[in-house]
């Protein structure tokens, strides 16, 4: 009995120790046990409102937020005064002398002298990435006075001014030796000289996004000559209707790989040395379709000639509306385009598509988005499919994958699918996604029954949601493969 009693006592003792050890593990605050620099790094991914709230967790957490190297302040819909007080509380208690990220989104009616003081202070902290946004309505010039942004920081790697600022570059220090990414909203003609000067001060600039507001301007000469640039996003926004103006945009960027142009001013583009283009998006827009003049179409074709070396081409809907006025002019041949993403317009319908297929002899992937054509159609008779006189060579030799988005099952759409299946001799896959979340089974059966020129072609019909997911995967895989070539 004594032996059994000792055994039982020993067993109970071991169980108690294990239970106590388990309880201690469960009570351990693993996050608080992390080193300070790791905790600060984790906090840097939160907004400052969330970061400051962590000070109530424990005595150790009380001051952690003051050492963060990334500050993100979002007060878009806040009361201007209370938000300004919170920003100043954060900046006054920030212990970091090397701030990596400062991201500030302010209400519209923020006190400008206070905002300018914050900018000057942050620029003094060896800031790496600076993003400033003062709310105003998109596509409209701001009606309130502009904040002053003195650009004198040599440590900046990324600068993002997503609102219009009164940009000032002092005559003394004008070089930005480490700046690689620049995002600006600018008002022309006020900021034109400053912009040209700024671009000349960025010897390592790789990414440039410009949102340009044209404020009652008759003449514009914008020169983007940046030898190191790899990515360019250009938005030209003009109030009023498309009229002929003397707008000239010069792009001289020999290492450019990505180009996106959204322009409702129908400017004249002079493209030089664009030999490395991989991906191009063109949104050549107009606010009044009835006032498109022949010169607009000629300017668009000149732009096409400058980008004809690209591998991937995306044409937004209004671009094809302008192209409709250029059907009688000679089109450039895009010999290197292997992927074409296009939205048939509400005006020219399928005519431009036939010409684009003839102009892309090495096309391998074609994606059609029917949102625009189906949203605006009034008379279905305007949308009859007229096949080209001769079968485009890409259909006979190269085209392997086709994706059709927002398919409604109208007669012209069905005819396009039938034509492509009948003539694409090496087609491997056609994906069709209906506009609604419920596909038309009768139309789907008709599509699947069409004869196919390619014996290896697989036709799949999906609901709208699943098709969007597939197109994302298809384009991602294509970009991944093409980047390795």
Structure in a nutshell:
It comes from Spinacia oleracea (Spinach). Residues 28-77 form the F-box domain. The chain has 485 residues and is α/β, with parallel strands linked by helices.
Radius of gyration: 29 Å
Mean pLDDT, nearest integer?
80
Count of helical segments? 14
Which stretches of 5+ consecutive residues score pLDDT under 50? 22-26
* Class of secondary structure makeup: alpha/beta
Overall 3D shape = globular
Between the first and last Cα atoms, what is the distance in angstroms? 81 Å
Strand order of the largest sheet: 1-2-3-5-7-8-10-12-14-15-16-17-18-19-20
Share of helical residues: 25-40%
Sheet having the most strands: 15 strands, parallel
InterPro entries: F-box-like_dom_sf, F-box_AtFBL13-like, F-box_dom, FBD, FBL13/AtMIF1-like, LRR_dom_sf, LRR_FXL15/At3g58940/PEG3-like
Protein name: F-box/LRR-repeat protein At4g14103-like
Organism: Spinacia oleracea
Domain F-box: 28-77
Describe this structure in words.
The chain has helices spanning 2-27, 36-43, 48-53, 80-93, 112-123, 192-199, 294-306, 317-323, 351-359, 371-376, 393-397, 411-423, 441-449, 464-484; strands at 70-74, 101-106, 129-134, 148-150, 158-164, 166-168, 181-188, 207-214, 219-225, 231-238, 246-252, 258-263, 268-272, 279-284, 312-315, 339-342, 365-369, 401-407, 429-434, 458-462. The chain has 485 residues and is α/β, with parallel strands linked by helices. The radius of gyration is 29 Å and the shape is globular. Strands 1-2-3-5-7-8-10-12-14-15-16-17-18-19-20 form a 15-stranded parallel β-sheet, sandwiched between helices. Strands 9-11-13 form a 3-stranded parallel β-sheet. The protein has a domain at 69-205.
């Amino acid at each position: 009995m004594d032996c059994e009693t000792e055994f039982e006592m020993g067993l109970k003792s071991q169980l108690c120790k294990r239970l106590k050890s388990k309880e201690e593990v469960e009570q351990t605050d693993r996050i608080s046990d992390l080193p300070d620099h790791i905790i600060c790094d984790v906090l840097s991914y939160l907004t400052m409102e969330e970061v400051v709230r962590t000070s109530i967790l424990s005595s150790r957490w009380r001051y952690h937020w003051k050492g963060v190297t990334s500050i993100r302040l979002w007060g878009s819909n806040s009361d201007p005064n209370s938000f300004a007080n919170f920003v100043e509380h954060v900046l006054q208690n920030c212990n970091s002398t090397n701030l990596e990220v400062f991201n500030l989104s302010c209400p519209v009616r923020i006190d400008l002298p206070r905002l300018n003081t914050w900018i000057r202070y942050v620029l003094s902290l060896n800031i790496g990435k600076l993003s400033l946004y003062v709310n105003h309505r998109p596509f409209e010039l701001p009606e309130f006075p502009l904040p002053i942004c003195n650009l004198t920081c040599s440590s900046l790697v990324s600068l993002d001014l997503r609102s219009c600022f009164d940009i000032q570059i002092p005559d003394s220090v004008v070089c930005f030796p480490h700046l690689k990414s620049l995002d600006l909203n600018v008002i022309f003609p006020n900021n034109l000289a400053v912009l040209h000067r700024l671009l000349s001060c960025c010897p390592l600039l790789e990414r440039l996004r410009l949102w340009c507001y044209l404020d009652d301007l008759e003449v514009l000469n914008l020169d983007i000559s940046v030898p190191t640039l790899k990515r360019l996003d250009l938005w030209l926004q003009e109030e009023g209707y498309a009229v002929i103006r003397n707008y000239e945009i010069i792009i001289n960027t020999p290492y450019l790989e990505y180009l996106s142009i959204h322009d409702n001013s129908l400017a004249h583009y002079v493209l030089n040395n664009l030999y490395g283009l991989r991906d191009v998006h063109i949104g050549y827009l107009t606010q009044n379709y009835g006032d498109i003049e022949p010169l607009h179409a000629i300017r668009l074709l000149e732009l096409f000639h400058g980008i004809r070396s690209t591998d991937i081409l995306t044409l937004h809907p209004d671009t094809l509306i302008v192209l409709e006025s250029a059907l009688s002019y000679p089109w450039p041949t895009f010999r290197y385009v292997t992927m074409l993403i296009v939205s048939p317009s509400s005006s020219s319908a399928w005519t431009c598509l036939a010409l684009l297929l003839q102009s892309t002899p090495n096309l391998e992937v074609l994606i059609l988005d029917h949102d625009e054509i189906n949203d605006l159609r009034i008379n279905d008779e305007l949308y009859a499919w007229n096949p080209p006189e001769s079968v485009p060579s890409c259909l006979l030799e190269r085209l392997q994958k086709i994706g059709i988005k927002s398919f409604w099952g109208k007669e012209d759409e069905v005819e396009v699918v039938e034509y492509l299946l009948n003539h694409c001799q090496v087609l491997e896959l056609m994906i069709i996604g209906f506009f609604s979340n419920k596909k038309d089974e009768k139309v789907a059966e008709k599509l699947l029954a069409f004869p196919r020129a390619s014996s290896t072609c697989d036709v799949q019909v999906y609901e709208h949601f699943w098709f969007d997911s597939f197109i994302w995967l298809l384009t991602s895989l294509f970009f991944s493969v093409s980047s390795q070539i």
